[in-house]
Structures are given as C-alpha cells and as structure tokens.
Amino acid sequence: KPYIEELKELSTKRRLFSFTNEIKAECMEQKESSEIIDSAETKLFKIATSSSSKDFRESEEVTKSTLDYMNEMKKRGDNMLVGLDTGFYELNKKNAGFGKGDLIIIAARPAMGKTAFALNIASNALAQGVGVAIFSLEMPAEQLMLRMLAARTSIPLQDLRVANIDDGQWGRLTDAMQQFSDSKLFVDDEGGLTMSALRSKLRKLKARHKEVGLAIIDYLQIMSGTGNKDR
C-alpha cells in the first residue's frame, strides 16, 4: 500500500506539471483570459478529484447500480416521482420530477409568470432540504426574495414592497423569512453572466455545499457568450 500511495502522489504531480505547461500554451494563444481560467479550473478540478478519465463499466457493476436504483425507488413508495419534486402534481405526472443532470427550459411569452413559476419550484425544493442556486440576471436578490415571500405567505407582492402589512401578516412573514434563512438558498445577481463564469461559480458552490441539487437561471437570453464561442 505505501508504494501504491507514493505512485499515486507522483502521478498527480506529473499531471500537475503537464497542466502548468498546458496553461502556458493557452496563454500564448489568442484566447480570452476568462476562457483560459475556465479551462484551468476544469482541468485542476479533474486532477483534484482524480476523474480525468472514465473507463468502460462492466456489466456486473452496471447491473448492481441499476438494482440499487430500483431498490431506492421501491423505498420511496411513489410510483410517479423519480426525480426532484417540483411541487406541482400535474407536472410531476408528466416528467416524474426533475432528474439529476436534466436541463429544463421554461418558455413562454412575456409576463406569463415564468419567473414566478421557477421561484415556486425553488421554494418547493428548499422545503425538501435541497439546496438551490439562482442566477438572477435581471433583478436583484432582494426582489426575488420578496416574490418568494409573497408566494409563501399569500401576502400580495405590492403590499410587501411598501411594507403595508398588519400584525397577523407580520407573524406569517417572520416565520417565512426564518424558513428561508435556515434553507440552503444561494443567489447570484451580479449580471453579465457567461457560460464559463456560470460553470466556475457552480463548481465552487457545489464543492462547498454538496446539498445543492437545483440551479435556476433567470433568464437564459441575457447570458453572454465567451470569446468567439457560439452563444
């Protein structure tokens, strides 16, 4: 075992040495710094997690993981839900919940409630103990929180904006704010988001908070391209 550990240590150092040369080469090319940083972070993350390459999976291992998955579904006792519960029964019936690695695009005409719908899904995920990351390119985090509080407390959004609420509503509002405060909600409202910046921020967040299971971008069309890559 000590020889194996030493071999792994030297192998990691050799990969790091190659990595530095690759970064030098990329710096000499006509690439934007943000693109180089994203590439460097990706490669370094792979080295750190020892996942730079993945070999074939044998049938025995695939069969066992499939059986484990089926046992997990059986324990749930839910014949409809496989992924994340969206909180909307009819939607769950259509897609069996949001699966890990799914890319879901919510599309509709302006002012149809896309953001409100996405925030409701986020609120439901938080209630299940799932961490949620929200990238808000259009409105500040405080505005998003007001909308989520309005949905959670049934207090009209306009009343919350001007703090026109009575004592009973204050109690509901305080409880809702405490619930959100205790949950794993992360909001990025910087704006000017690029794909490389998104990937970098999410990678770092996920490394610190493993419970993050849902990322929401509001909204996709505002995102910028990176270098000469297709937006």
Features:
231 residues, mainly alpha, three-stranded parallel beta sheet, 3 strands
SSE succession: HHHHHEHHHEHE
Please identify the structural class as seen in this structure. Answer: mainly alpha
Beta-strand proportion: 5-15%
Separation, N- and C-terminal Cα atoms: 48 Å
**Largest sheet features:** 3 strands, parallel
The gross shape turns out to be: globular
Give a count of the beta strands, DSSP E runs of length 2 or more.
3
Count of helix runs: 9
**Mean of pLDDT:** 85
**Which value, in Å, is the CA radius of gyration?**
22 Å
- Please list the strands of the largest sheet in the order they lie side by side: 2-1-3
**Parts with pLDDT < 50 across at least 5 consecutive residues:** none
| Helix residue percentage | 55-70%
